[in-house]
Amino acid sequence: MHYALKASALALTLGLATTASPAWADFWSDAGAKYKGVTLHGVTESTPPSNYIKNVLAPEFEKKTGIKVEIETTSWDQMYDKAIKDMEAKTGIYDMVYIEQDIIYSYLARNFLVDITKTLKDQPDLKAPTYDDANFTSFADYFKDANGDLFGTPMEAFLKTYLYRKDLFDDPKIKEAFKKETGKDLKPATTHEEYTQIAEFFTKYGKDNGMELWGTTAQAHTGHPASWYEFFESIVPTFGVYNWGIDAKNNYAATVEHGGTMNGDKAKAALKYWLHLRDIAPPESTQSTWTETATTFAAGRVAQGLIYGENAAWIASDEAQSKVVGKVGFALPPLEPGVLDDAKAGKGYIGYYDGGAFGVPITSKNKEASLLFLEFIGQNEVQPDWAIAAPRITNKATFDDPKVKEMDTKLGGFYTMLKDEGKLFAGAPPYPFHAQVREATAPIFYDILTGKIAPDEGLDQMAAKAEEELTSLGYRK
């Protein structure tokens, strides 16, 4: 077990031992009595928050209820494949599945998940006195249906933020060299032009000084959905292209010809910007997913980059995994003019608010016991140590916990950014056809990345392909 998880496990155990009331302890033992000996099976991506559930919360739940929980942690693509195949075939292998924010709408459209709100209302004996979905942050809204019923207990939520190396940006020698070369002061970028200039400078600086240092990360894998997601969820919004460039109010138009923006001028400018960054990023970038960009940054190989929040905190604080502890700064991503105003007005967003939840498949053979576990991990009481061990916050009260505040200071305001600026970011658009459109257009996107198709032509083809897929699915009339 990771040392941070060991520490968190001890802190959690001590915390629960000293703060849990007899009534709280009695509920779990009483509620779990009828399911004692049951083994629940869950599948999730191997991420810090998921590993915390597996190593800390599942054993604690078993102690209190007698219900054993086995959590299978695997790669993102295997996790998704296993979960959806199980639910489609109705085999009931899994009692709990990880629901990524961007796939929930597909699951709801196919009636894959148990309605948590309705079930707890219909079976009040299952309702824990320490569980209340009103305790969740607004991120929980992404896991609700049109009636406001919750279908997943949020277990991770984070922003994809702009990370930069404070030690490099504050180095007098580097600052002087940057000023001499550009005529500007070296500081975190607020525009794409600034970001590009900084990236070019550091890549050249690394080469000139014989350093393994480049100017930026790039999540640009040539055959993995991570690159598609980086472009559509993290890059194009900063240019003012929202919801993948698909206009749901305009017959789901994607092409400029029909009123969409997937292949518009802003999207094409965004693609050329990002491809240039990829070309001056470390050589591993063409095979990097969200995991590899994090390890690249942690290894000290880049000066700046867009990094998922689930990795940002350990990069900044975990000396066992990161060479840049104490050297990391956090900022909002660089933006085109007007994008921040759009976000503040609720007309757009500046980046991706990512995360996921645990849901119970309709096909589970142990629904009630599974719901008890989802309630357990959704309590305020278990959140602070979880937030410290894994950089995620799903419950509002967690922000005010003294331990979390202390960690926030250590991380330079990482949690404060999530609390104060989270409203400027957004999850994936509420598209039931999410996976289908991604899978239909991704091969073309990969061809752009490998140079088989020119960027402008490639986006034109992707937009047309998106409309073709939406027509075949019955969304475009």
UniProtKB/TrEMBL annotation:
Residues 1-25 form the signal peptide. This is Extracellular solute-binding protein family 1. InterPro entries: Bact_solute-bd_prot1, SBP. Pfam families: SBP_bac_8. PANTHER family: ABC TRANSPORTER PERIPLASMIC-BINDING PROTEIN YCJN-RELATED, ARABINOSE-BINDING PROTEIN-RELATED. It comes from the Bacteria. Belongs to the bacterial solute-binding protein 1 family. GO terms for cellular component: periplasmic space. It comes from Rhizobium leguminosarum bv. trifolii (strain WSM2304). It is found in: Periplasm. Keywords: Periplasm, Signal, Transport.
